[in-house]
């Protein structure tokens, strides 16, 4: 799902992460060596057989269950991003990777139909994510499908006390982001994996159980230990799948979403809470093409209007569960009227566009003239509903650990955030990039890629960044969840500062774009 990301004002964030460990890598001289072999196609298997195992580089010659370097559980956007990132690196492009997901579309070459109406499930990818997708070779496939760059954002609230406009030119960039359908993101990355040298096997099944034993010496096992021996000595994890397959891997990656089975089986706990909010998403149509990302904060939650190209936009409307059920079930005409009201004069007036010198908040900035590009604008009217209305509950969850021995979590398996900023998938792609780098470093040093000491390098990089983003998003959600006079004035001051204080605006845009880390006021 995709939402506009806007920071109006930010104070220093104290990040209470549990621990960040920076441990020196140690070489596992007893680890088995990789046997590299070129594989030109993706294998899809439904049960273990000699045919399914014959093209696996580390499949045991005695005919036991297939052995992989990495098993990725979850073939969604982040799981496939990890596979594509591994496929793009010289040190990891020949690895033997299993992808475990019961989505039948993963076995198809092209899952996008030309001329389709936009799907309501979209993501706003930041410039940093676009750079990652270009590096792994996926962006060229995305550009062949529907996508919508935007270079302007406008954010305001229902009180009419203030607004903020952001322009890519404020930070000398061409764009602020791009809205892409989730299935286009997934298909494009899958194309990279399918056309790579990566040895990959897709298991269309669910993970039932996962076993691993403490590590012990390989002494006395011979030059080429069997898969069973490696498992018994703690060098492999064993995965039992719903289709009867047993799969062994040096590293298991949980990319299986917020209700991660990998996380559950690894015994990794989470902290967090449910928000008393649901989100409705859908595709709508205008009479003109939309090139701006819009967001208005309403009493029960924000509504966002995101361009998706060809006169279509995506609606993301957050509200309390009862209102969400009513909005989802009302007639199309009534829903369109409600959307247009929410983006116009419904709930309160438009903010006034005046010089800051004529504002009660001019003490923040002095007398500043407003250019035409900074004036408040009204979003384009919605004229048609072009998809079903989908609804889902919102929550915040964070895994206490991202890794354990032979297990790593990425994306929603490790963290879920409030969607008001559309940052969830961007955090997941950053996870995939960081984990693939850690794996490449381990291979370069001859380290067992499933060792916790190596995986902690990934956790140390990503956990602080994710917690900082979660803290900011949760703070914004809470700040706009209360209708209280003094707080409304504070929010107006935040809008005002973000709109008129150029250094602050630039830092906000850079952080939202994934190009700068906290603290904002360094």
UniProtKB/TrEMBL annotation:
For activity, the cofactor(s) needed are:
FAD
Q: State the family named in the UniProt similarity comment for this chain.
A: Belongs to the UbiH/COQ6 family.
- The annotated regions of Polar residues compositional bias extend over 47-65
Keywords from the UniProt entry: FAD, Flavoprotein, Membrane, Mitochondrion, Mitochondrion inner membrane, Monooxygenase, Oxidoreductase, Ubiquinone biosynthesis
Protein name, entry field: FAD-binding domain-containing protein
PANTHER family in alphabetical order: UBIQUINONE BIOSYNTHESIS MONOOXYGENASE COQ6, MITOCHONDRIAL
- Which residue ranges are recorded for the region named Disordered? 47-66
UniProt keyword Magnesium present = no
Domain called FAD-binding: residue spans: 69-342, 385-469
User: What organism is the protein native to?
Assistant: Brassica napus (Rape)
